[in-house]
Design brief:
The chain is α/β, with parallel strands linked by helices. The chain has helices spanning 15-20, 37-45, 52-69, 112-126, 139-147, 178-182, 256-265, 283-297, 324-328, 333-344, 350-364, 393-400, 429-437, 455-463, and strands at residues 10-13, 32-35, 79-80, 92-95, 132-135, 151-153, 171-173, 187-191, 194-200, 212-215, 221-229, 232-237, 272-277, 303-308, 365-367, 381-386, 408-413, 443-448. Strand 10 (212-215) and strand 11 form a beta hairpin.
Length: 464
């Protein structure tokens, strides 16, 4: 039996929702969608260019054509959103087919946002039996809507989770009675110089593949979960990179999480690594040290490729001269700073030796812009995506699918520092990949907790 009109809602979409996620047209299940004329105008104005926003505008237009071409009925009655590729949707799409004049108190009528609010107010008056809701990624239009008594919501469909506190940390502390409850039928063995333990107990069911576990009581124990089978888990004892003997390019881990991070970064069996943490936790330094070790010493990868989103924190400084690599240089200050640290770690080399090493390092690190990633395939590369919290889930997919055979992808970021408009901690591409890759055999994730930059930086991070 079809749902009654009063049960289904009327969602009016702001342009930024469509530019953020073109498939949002098919995300409202049995409810109806209404697009004001000003939304179509704004889509038309943003369709030119090679940016992600322009691509999304063009994709939205294609979806609209697909919806309308499969529904040859009158536009007044709405077009069925149910298409060949999206047959789970049962709502209709309505377009503004006649001018709507509705004077809103306090607001100037010509601004696009205010025109959309006028349309919502008109629909609310016309369809009193139904709930009319404005959906927008823009906080200001939602505030304006509420002051006018109009229901307004953010677009939640791309949110991986409501609370970033629930994000998988990649590390778990074992309780004090762990060995009493899990060592009954324990087996242990060595294989290729690595120590393994097979344990059985109630906690094993909640373990995740490649999750790090640690026990810090009488005998400290640090391990990674390598295999799961119901209530049985195989744990591998991790390499201790806090010991100067096992330094990586002169870098030793300064805390437990850094040690875990180096373990996944140096494991050739792990293809995808995500490192989260606030500024100064060592994400970039550890990743570069591990990358150089595997490119120059072990020769597992041919070169390091580093890329990041070019979002300014302050004012933009305009067009930059030079090649792609030279244009990216201002965004790569973090790379330069960390290379200085890595280059100073060899005290015996002397100035000539250090200069030669610096040239060798720079010849093996390529800086690429995100704008030219489509259609590329990276073979045997160590790909670092810095500031990954500023990427959407679609941009993240575009980048990760560039990985060819033998390539390792490392995503670094701090989800508390998002500079892109319309992205939140819950909808960031970094949050999305951490959640989706959780439990895959070739994935590693660590949330770095402790800042190791300096006492000044640590104190500032705490009190400011």
């Amino acid at each position: 039996m079809a749902k009654s009109k009063s049960k289904t809602k009327f969602f009016v979409l702001d342009t930024n929702v469509l530019l953020h996620d073109p498939s949002s047209l098919f995300r409202f299940e049995e409810h109806d969608i209404y697009l004001p004329m000003v939304t179509l105008e704004e889509l038309d104005n943003t369709k030119k260019g090679l940016s992600e926003v322009a691509r999304n505008a063009r994709q939205t237009s294609r979806y609209l054509e697909e919806i309308m071409s499969s529904n040859l009925s009158s536009l007044e009655d709405g077009c069925l959103l149910n298409t060949a590729n999206n047959n789970h949707v049962s709502g209709r799409l309505f377009l503004q087919t006649h001018p709507i004049e509705f004077d809103l108190p306090m607001l100037a009528g010509s601004i696009a946002d205010n025109q959309i609010l006028s349309v919502v107010a008109y629909l609310k008056k016309e369809h009193q039996e139904r709930k009319v809701i404005l959906v927008s990624k823009d906080i200001n239009i939602r505030i304006k809507a509420r002051t006018l008594g109009i229901d307004a919501e953010d677009y939640f469909n791309d949110k991986v989770m409501e609370d970033s506190e629930l994000l998988f940390p990649g590390v778990r502390e074992l309780p004090q009675d762990f060995w009493e409850t899990h060592s009954k039928a324990m087996e242990s063995w060595q294989e290729e110089g690595k120590m393994f333990y097979k344990i059985t107990g109630p906690l094993c069911e909640s373990f995740v593949n490649n999750e790090f576990v640690y026990y810090e009581f009488d005998k400290p124990f640090h391990a990674i979960v390598k295999q799961l089978n119901g209530k049985t888990a195989t744990l591998q004892v991790v390499q201790d990179f806090t010991n100067p003997k096992f330094n990586v390019w002169g870098i030793t881990a300064r805390n437990r999480e850094q040690n875990f991070a180096l373990n996944v970064l140096l494991d050739p069996d792990i293809d995808f690594v995500t490192l989260l943490g606030q500024a100064g936790t060592g994400k970039t330094l550890l990743t570069l040290a591990a990358g150089l070790d595997q490119v120059l010493d072990k020769k597992i990868y041919s070169e390091i490729i580093m890329t990041r989103v070019t979002v300014s924190v302050g004012e933009d400084i305009g067009f930059l001269p030079g090649t792609e690599e030279e244009k990216m240089t201002p965004w790569m200050g973090a790379l330069e700073d960390n290379l200085d640290v890595l280059n100073k770690s060899d005290d015996e080399a002397g100035d000539w030796g250090r200069a030669a090493t610096q040239d060798l390092i720079r010849s093996r690190i390529k800086i690429k812009s995100l704008n030219f990633m489509r259609g590329r395939t990276f073979l045997n590369k160590f790909l670092i995506i810095d500031e990954a919290q500023n990427l959407t889930s679609k941009q993240m997919k575009t980048l990760i699918t560039r990985a060819g055979p033998g390539t390792k992808v490392v995503c670094l970021g701090n989800i508390a520092q998002i500079d892109t408009p319309y992205l939140t901690e819950g909808s960031s591409g970094l949050t999305y990949v951490v959640d989706r890759f959780k439990g895959w055999d070739h994935n590693g994730h660590i949330t770095l907790m402790r800042g190791e930059r300096s006492r000044l930086a640590d104190y500032a991070a705490d009190i400011l």
